[in-house]
Amino acid sequence: MQKYNKGDHVRVAKDLGEFMSHFKSDCEAIVIGSYNDEYGGGNTKSYTIHIKGDCEVSWYYENQLMLIEAGRIDLLEQWEEEEKQESDMKSDLNWIFDHGKEVLLNPHGSTISTLAKSFGLTNLWGSRGEGITYYSNVISTLAMASPFLESGDKKGWLNYCKMINGEQPEVK
Questions:
Q1: Residue 64 gets which letter from DSSP?
Q2: What is the extent of the structural domain holding 20?
Q3: Whether 97 and 66 share a structural domain
Q4: Under the phi-then-psi rule, with left for phi > 0, alpha for psi from -120 to 50, and beta for the rest, what region is 13?
Q5: CA–CA distance, 144 with 151 (Å, rounded to integer)
Q6: Exposed end of the chain (fewer CB within 10 Å): N or C?
């Protein structure tokens, strides 16, 4: 029998153990489903959850979750709408360059994606969806954008991206 069901509002434990110390802990989440719900096979002890203010993550064990309230799919919808609004805001080039120093200190995924698209990189994960490729592309994108973000120079960034793409930059 499965302990949690889709839509259950849960709290993630503070201590996830040594092998999951890199996972987010001590936070609220909504259960998306067990491994069995998503793929079959009978595993009802591992769950995909949607972490508040973050994203979906797999696989948390049932003993790492504590029920807050059952059946809160409405809360998941609210969180997703809030996350979409934040993503939309942080992917706007005007916002990015108005908050350049903040971006460098705490870059949002949507911000990085927008900056990368400016010079033609449309898939930060690469063709095989590797985390190391994503990380490398994020670091490279931020390194290239850093002087422009520091100075709030959106036009300079766009001209730089045109040069990368072999286009003629605008004359200042």
A1: G
A2: 9-76
A3: no
A4: beta
A5: 13
A6: N
**Where does 46-161 show beta strands of DSSP type E?**
46-51, 56-61, 65-69
Residue 149 near residue 140 (C-beta atoms within 8 A): no
Q: Tens digit of pLDDT per residue, the chain (172 long)?
A: 899 999 999 999 999 998 998 899 999 999 999 999 999 999 999 999 999 988 899 999 999 999 999 999 999 999 999 999 999 999 999 999 999 999 999 999 999 999 999 999 999 999 888 889 999 999 999 999 999 999 999 999 999 999 998 888 787 6
Q: Is residue 110 in a domain?
A: yes
Predicted TM-score of the model (pTM)? 0.75
Which residue is associated with the tokens 């690469």?
Answer: 126
